Amino acid sequence: MKIAAIEAIPYSIPYTHPLRFASGEVTHANNVVIKVTTQDGVVGVAEAPPRPYTYGETQASIVAVVRDLFAPAIVGTTLLQREQAQQAMARTIGNPTAKAAIDMAMWDALGRTLGQSVSSLLGGFTDRMRVSHMLGFESPERMVAEAERMKDTYGISTFKVKVGRRPVDLDVAVCRALRTHFGDTIELYIDGNRGWTAAESAQALTAMADLGLTLAEELNPADDVLGRRWLVERTPMPFVADESVPTPADITREILAGSATAVSIKTARTGFTTSHRILGLVEGLGIDVVMGNQIDGQIGTNATVTFGAAFERTSRRAGELSNFLDISDDLLTEPLRITNGELIVREGPGVGVDLDDDKLAHYRIDV
Amino acid sequence: MKIAAIEAIPYSIPYTHPLRFASGEVTHANNVVIKVTTQDGVVGVAEAPPRPYTYGETQASIVAVVRDLFAPAIVGTTLLQREQAQQAMARTIGNPTAKAAIDMAMWDALGRTLGQSVSSLLGGFTDRMRVSHMLGFESPERMVAEAERMKDTYGISTFKVKVGRRPVDLDVAVCRALRTHFGDTIELYIDGNRGWTAAESAQALTAMADLGLTLAEELNPADDVLGRRWLVERTPMPFVADESVPTPADITREILAGSATAVSIKTARTGFTTSHRILGLVEGLGIDVVMGNQIDGQIGTNATVTFGAAFERTSRRAGELSNFLDISDDLLTEPLRITNGELIVREGPGVGVDLDDDKLAHYRIDV
After folding, report:
1. Annotated catalytic, A160?
2. Which of B285, B287, B311, B315 should be substituted to probe chain A, the one whose Cβ sees the most A Cβ atoms within 10 Å?
3. CA count, 13 A, side-chain hemisphere, A23
4. Residue A26 CA neighbour count, 13 Å, CB half
5. Between A and B, how many CB-CB pairs are < 8 A?
6. Among residues 45-84 of chain A, which lie with CB inside 8 Å of chain B?
């Protein structure tokens, strides 16, 4: 159980096509694999996705903070001294995905050591989640075609439409085209990534009032404090806070301030341990929750379903589990498969995925 | 891992002397042992303390609800389908200690199956908690003598003084006598069990302003809604909600309403699973927490330290872990021992205590 080493290995795999949304564009999956190795030779794996425009981390900063601060503080403790590891990492401000990946790699190693699945150790509520697919900025025709392809190929019927373009009619037209084309065979919700103003958001929501949208996420910036509250009060579906609530304290602040009525849990930023605490917070506050995607690769996506399926509240809604489909390759010996619109929890032990060492060697980069 | 049987076994052990406080008096430990047995023959144990005046449960009601509702719903699932068990039990309203004991017995059986301590599986923050001892209603001289005995015999230096008598001077005199006798070598806090009015509470707090009390718990009834808020606003130390917050939703309501500024977590009523969720809630809300005692026997007290020591926030303050000292016997092969004012977490596996079958047969009763 004693942790002998923690490694951070940066890699880069191109996307098949750039992902575009209001807060940026992504062309490569430039993530960092975290490996936690015990003295018994058990290896736990997770990955950290650097999001400089969301959390301020880069590939190089993740590698550095793991090597220089987190690994020295945690090596020598055991996989079961999880709360000590949390406290050791909490001394350093920020760096959420680096912290989360170490936590998840420790959980993976723990599950492997105990011969149990992490999802079961966490809660074991169900063995699968429905998958929600994100549709990036394109013309209505292309976005309908992409949704059609996802529906036909993977059975996905829940779509998160990226919005936040100007004029708002661009995005309204997309949502209307999707609803017109698919009727009520799909669930639709929107994510603005803070691209609109409060007024534009309200205008768009009014224009889409008949489209049956189920969630509205980060339509305008949380730092437009009063505009955001005004908007949330008028939004007729749960208003999801995502990048504005990276920590439990942020959730409390934003929910109590009326700046959101639901939150996104992302294992990429809060790992399994803090995500579990956040679950307690959102259940206790009585708010809605969705399992989000930090533009994760397959390792990160598998972490999301591992956590989300473990609890009733996090498995109610479809999870955002399909971004990896746009990455041209992966690092796993057995890639993830979405079938019938669902992603199944790997049976384990641990989180149930194994790294393909040849692939990691191939895509590994220096930062 | 599959659960083969869940039993509820009522027992009665006399106290060495009656425990007296504002909400009642206890002469016997009339608790219910819960045993969860797996198909592999692993047995997990916990206990439920019936508190009719707090939660409406009796020994007979606990036995009945376990036998008639909870056991049929859970037998056949596995120890790792914890969230399914939670959901199955949640269908039945109330019955908190029956639900909590089943959850904790499942955790004990899980730890035994995996060969690991439950405290480590939960978080593994530390291996011990400082012990707070409750001083029931007596004369100042007797309460000082009792505190002296606890300090000399067990090294305990944190005392929770039961208050709520009329006139308030009775209790003020006790607290003053304790502070005068011990100086600043002890920590003192008070628990009113809703015995005073808001005005009496404020009067008492003023009279004790120089005594350095660290917590004030349930001084007046939470259902005196405005009086309670008025009092909490004026209370110069954390005001602990206990019996007014048996569920996470109650915590949110009472904290946001200004009816408390801290909460008591009792594994006796929220087990390990819901207590973990409550930890997430209180951390996210940023409020203080104390590990409380439901007048637990040794099995229940061991559960409290198992959970409390697992996390940084729940192990900060002394836990209320000594009520069992007043019970004339116990059911364990190895009784708990408080030394140097601390209770050590049993190493496990499970929660680390084993039932003495002869003793259980001796104290077992029919209800």
Report:
1. no
2. B285
3. 18
4. 28
5. 101
6. 78, 80-84
- Which one is catalytic: A35, A99, A160, A162? A162
> Distance (Å, rounded) from C-alpha B351 to C-alpha A196?
53
Q: In this structure, what DSSP letter does residue A355 have?
A: B
Taken as a whole, chain A contains a residue count of 367
Global ipTM: 0.88
Weakly modelled stretches of chain A, pLDDT under 70: 21, 23
Fold topology of A3-115+356-363: Enolase-like; domain 1 (3.30.390)
Task: Provide the 3-class DSSP secondary structure of residue B137.
Answer: coil
List of E strands, B39-82:
43-48
Tell me the per-residue pLDDT of B245-256, one tens digit each, with 9 for 90 and over: 999 999 999 999
Tokens for A191, please give them.
Answer: 């994510």
From CA B120, how far away is CA B349, in angstroms rounded? 10
Q: Which of A87, A106, A285 to mutate to test the interface with B (most CBs of B within 10 A)?
A: A285
List A217, A243, A320, A330, catalytic entry: A217
Give the number of C-alpha atoms closer than 13 A to the C-alpha of residue B134, restricted to the C-beta side.
Answer: 26
In this structure, are residues A61 and A50 in contact, taking their beta carbons and an 8 Å threshold? yes
A191 in catalytic set: yes
Q: Are residues A112 and A347 in contact, defined by beta-carbon separation less than 8 angstroms?
A: no
CB pair distance less than 8 Å for B279 and A280 = yes
Backbone torsions φ then ψ of A265, nearest 5 degrees: -100, 130
Three-state DSSP string of B165-213: CCCCHHHHHHHHHHHHHHHHHCEEEEECCCCCCHHHHHHHHHHCCCCCC
Name the pLDDT band for B336 (thresholds 50, 70, 90): very high
Question: Does pTM top 0.90 for this prediction?
Answer: yes
CA–CA gap between residue A49 and residue A94 (Å, rounded): 14
CATH topology of domain A120-344: TIM Barrel (3.20.20)
Q: Please report residues of B whose CB lies closer than 8 A to that of A81.
A: 120, 124-125
Q: For chain A, which residues make up each domain, given as ranges?
A: 3-115+356-363, 120-344
Distance CA A44, CA A231 (A): 43
- pLDDT digits 0-9 by tens, B181-191: 999 999 999 99
A3-115+356-363 shares its CATH topology with A120-344? no
